[in-house]
Amino acid sequence: MLRADIREVDWSPFAGRVDLLWASPPCQPGSTAGKRRGADDDRDGWPWTWAAVDAVRPTWFLAENVLGWTYHARGCSLDGDHHGCVGCAWERSVLPALRSRFAFSGAWKLDAADFGVPQHRRRVVLWGGPLPLGVPAPTHGDPDDEDTENRGLAPLVSVRDAVGATLLADDTCELRTCYPCDGTRGRACTEPWRADRPAPTVTTSEEKGTRAHAPGWTFNGGPDRASDAAFLVAGVRRIEVAEGLVLQGLPADWPLQGTRQDQYRQVGNAVPPPLAEAAGRVVLAAHRVLLDLRARAVDLGALAAALRRNPTAVPAWLGRAAA
User: Fold this and answer.
1) What is the pTM of this model?
2) Which end of the chain is more exposed for a tag (fewer CB within 10 A), N or C?
3) Is residue 137 assigned to a domain?
4) Whether the Cβ atoms of residue 246 and residue 254 lie closer than 8 Å to each other
5) What gap in Å lies between CA 121 and CA 108, rounded to an integer?
6) How many domains does the chain have?
């Protein structure tokens, strides 16, 4: 494992040796929870990401980030020079940079809950490679939707399924800060049904706790973080680090570093493994097809040109190779 400032890494030893490069550039420049400065933010990691791609020259590329990158600024008319509009930077800089580097590319908008993660975490995943990719198929669905069973999907994983033994236990308030469920703390404990649904997004700010603040006990823009759900279910001020890990689809004892604040940030910035696995499996299937094509001495350039002209013109044996 290499831990370093990405701007200072020498990628040359990896050139031509990487099948899949995954990137998760800092989300703050595009997050709706921030000032959304996009390319004007010093933390904009897309230039460093493209530099790594150019040096490594991976066969496949995946990059995960917040949906906020895809949203245009209020008042943006989509024409002319909209300096500072994150959505314009996405469409005029990020996506063209991706397309220029790969024969095929695209963007998936995915919710981690659809892949068995006990939280709604909606993200955009960019992909690029030598062959077109399909969208990762959900493995879980809303149990109240009759189509879930018809599609053979498992029910969404709920907060209770994941961390009920601690978050919902009767003695939980002996272990952490809680508010009384007597009606004096606004909506505390008033929505127990949330325990049977995936949590809202686990954020890097869970250490601050719920957005319901005294004296009005109203949510400032929420409820939209995991600790808000804990407050609404059991009057809990904040989720613990271990609970955040479990809600991310990670083991509760996953090793973290630094202070308590550092650990909350690490948890909030993590990519849920089931979501990453779903994206990776799509790439793996396509990569097996690619290896089969190479073994058959198929002209990949000619195939790519044919697929761009007619995306449905995929030979039957190509589909079988991906199975």
Assistant:
1) 0.88
2) N
3) yes
4) no
5) 13
6) 2
